[in-house]
């Protein structure tokens, strides 16, 4: 059974969650319920674990210690303490709190694995995760603590600790409260962990995967927005859209490139500014700069990278990550599926692509501000150059962000620090890759916003020639919050206003009101 989103409910079954399911729960507070098939499978696999509990032969995670301590057989009367001790000791995170949407995604994805029946937990333990999500209770999880192998151990342990009624959680309105009190206030019974359950709750790639899914959702909005800002820059700098012609793009058949070029053609259609310099005798420029002419090649490569990352994410969403696992035929087997390498690699790959997309955006912005390259506009687009500085320092802000994004593009997944007395001697660092990608996505949003702000001013300054209907619609949406050209004003609030315009999708929606859907 595949999980589906209907209205405001996500049904978690024995099949894969969709990326849309994850976003709905993480960001939109969709309710969660277990499917009948998941309930049956959870009960069936728990019977397998219960049957091993009395076995005199040690079984990892059921009757042994963990990691480098797995060689100790734990007597029956200490096993509940074993599970509690595991969660308490592994809830060792440090640093700032992780964002609410990330924690909710992490809990949902752990519940998804529990629902497959491959972990051997009891039904009440799985149900507790759904109950916390539905109550809007978010465990406090910290920035540092995961090496991305043996699962996102510390982050997941903090989630499990809350299910046990220990540690701290935030309520739906953000209030920090004791977990035991929060569970009591919402009619949720704290879980008393039994054999295998502590390990099952902390042994997965759920944190890094959740952040990957959320980043991909953001990029679905930011990629067409990058085409919008590129089109505005080409138009505002009197560039040509001829290079975006379909037959030229088909000579290099990368699908992302062709999609980006198609968007650019739609966005620039019927531009009076473009028509004003179409005459080859009046316009002596032979070719535009790379940052204009090669926009679809760069944005297209990012699209293709996103497509690959989406494939990896969808495969991981279909995975049951735990160690040991209960197999379909009832065996309990150790494995290495918790290793985060597949997710870590694409997280790093996306950070590289995001940094380059921001870099070309910043180069287009910079061209607007240089009177030697902006084709007749005032220096820095200032109202009275010398008295006014225009967008001079907005580009500084862009440049600072792009420089940071280049540092964030250094891969985390090539690093590995051995842990657990050399038992866990090669780790993925996927959590770290995911954390820096989140910062990269925020940076890209801000860089594109500053390009949009600058390009909109340039388009206004090209009057009486009108921009394309699509770019005019974007400028009109911006002008609801930010005034047009004039003497210098406090620029930071205007930058933040356009950041929100990009982040909440209003800039994209404005263009699509003319062009139709931009993919």
TrEMBL record:
PROSITE patterns, per the entry: PAL_HISTIDASE
Pfam families in the cross-refs: Lyase_aromatic
Enzyme class: lyase
UniProt pathway annotation: Amino-acid degradation; L-histidine degradation into L-glutamate; N-formimidoyl-L-glutamate from L-histidine: step 1/3
Keyword Lyase applies: yes
Principal location: cytoplasm
Reactions catalysed according to its record: L-histidine = trans-urocanate + NH4(+)
GO biological process: L-histidine catabolic process to glutamate and formamide; L-histidine catabolic process to glutamate and formate
Claim: Signal is one of the keywords in the record: no
EC number annotated for this UniProt entry: 4.3.1.3
GO cellular component: cytoplasm
UniProt subcellular location: Cytoplasm
Record keywords, A-Z: Histidine metabolism, Lyase
Stored CDD domains: PAL-HAL (cd00332)
InterPro entries given in the database record: Aromatic_Lyase, Fumarase/histidase_N, HutH, L-Aspartase-like, Phe/His_NH3-lyase_AS
One of the record's GO molecular function terms: histidine ammonia-lyase activity
Similarity comment: Belongs to the PAL/histidase family.
Name used for this protein in its record: Histidine ammonia-lyase
Species assigned in the record: Barrientosiimonas humi
């Amino acid at each position: 059974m595949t999980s589906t989103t209907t209205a405001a409910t996500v049904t978690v079954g024995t099949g894969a969650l969709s990326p849309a399911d994850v976003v709905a729960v993480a960001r939109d507070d969709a309710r969660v319920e277990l499917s009948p098939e998941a309930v049956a499978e959870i009960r069936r696999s728990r019977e397998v674990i219960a049957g091993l509990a009395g076995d005199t032969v040690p079984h990892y995670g059921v009757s042994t210690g963990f990691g480098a301590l797995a060689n100790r057989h734990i007597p029956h009367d200490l096993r509940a303490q074993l599970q509690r001790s595991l969660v308490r000791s592994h809830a060792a995170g440090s640093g700032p709190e992780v964002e609410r949407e990330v924690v909710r995604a992490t809990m949902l994805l752990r519940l998804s694995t529990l629902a497959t029946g491959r972990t051997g937990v009891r039904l009440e333990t799985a149900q507790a995760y759904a109950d916390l999500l539905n109550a809007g209770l978010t465990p406090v999880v910290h920035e540092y603590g995961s090496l991305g192998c043996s699962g996102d151990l510390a982050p997941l342990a903090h989630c499990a600790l809350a299910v046990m009624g220990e540690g701290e959680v935030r309520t739906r309105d953000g209030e920090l409260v004791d977990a035991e009190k929060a569970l009591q206030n919402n009619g949720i019974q704290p879980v008393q962990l039994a054999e295998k359950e502590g390990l099952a709750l902390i042994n997965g790639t759920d944190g890094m995967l959740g952040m990957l899914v959320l980043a991909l959702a953001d990029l679905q909005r930011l990629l067409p927005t990058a085409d919008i800002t590129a089109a505005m820059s080409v138009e505002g700098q009197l560039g040509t859209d001829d290079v975006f012609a379909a037959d030229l793009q088909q000579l290099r058949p990368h699908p992302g490139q062709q999609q980006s070029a198609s968007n650019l053609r739609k966005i620039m259609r019927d531009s009076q500014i473009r028509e004003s310099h179409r005459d080859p005798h009046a316009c002596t420029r032979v070719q535009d700069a790379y940052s204009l002419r090669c926009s679809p090649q760069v944005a297209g490569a990012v699209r293709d990278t996103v497509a690959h990352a989406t494939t990896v994410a969808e495969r991981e969403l279909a995975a049951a990550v735990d160690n040991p696992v209960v197999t379909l035929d009832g065996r309990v087997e150790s494995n290495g599926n918790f290793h985060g390498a597949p997710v870590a690699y694409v997280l790093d790959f996306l950070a590289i692509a995001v940094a380059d997309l921001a870099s070309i955006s910043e180069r287009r912005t910079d061209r607007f501000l240089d009177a030697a390259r902006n084709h007749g506009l005032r220096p820095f687009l200032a109202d009275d150059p010398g008295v006014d500085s225009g967008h001079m320092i907005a580009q500084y802000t862009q440049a600072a962000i792009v420089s940071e994004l280049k540092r964030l593009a250094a891969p985390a997944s090539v690093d590995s620090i051995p842990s657990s007395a050399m038992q866990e001697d090669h780790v993925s660092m996927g959590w770290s890759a995911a954390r820096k990608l989140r910062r990269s996505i925020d940076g890209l949003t801000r860089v594109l916003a500053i390009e949009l702000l600058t390009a909109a001013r340039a388009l206004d300054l090209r009057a009486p020639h009108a921009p394309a209907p699509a770019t005019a619609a974007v400028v009109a949406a911006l002008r609801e919050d930010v005034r047009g050209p004039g003497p210098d004003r406090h620029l930071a609030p205007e930058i933040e206003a356009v950041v929100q315009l990009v982040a909440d999708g209003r800039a994209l929606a404005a263009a699509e009101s003319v062009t139709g859907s931009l993919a």
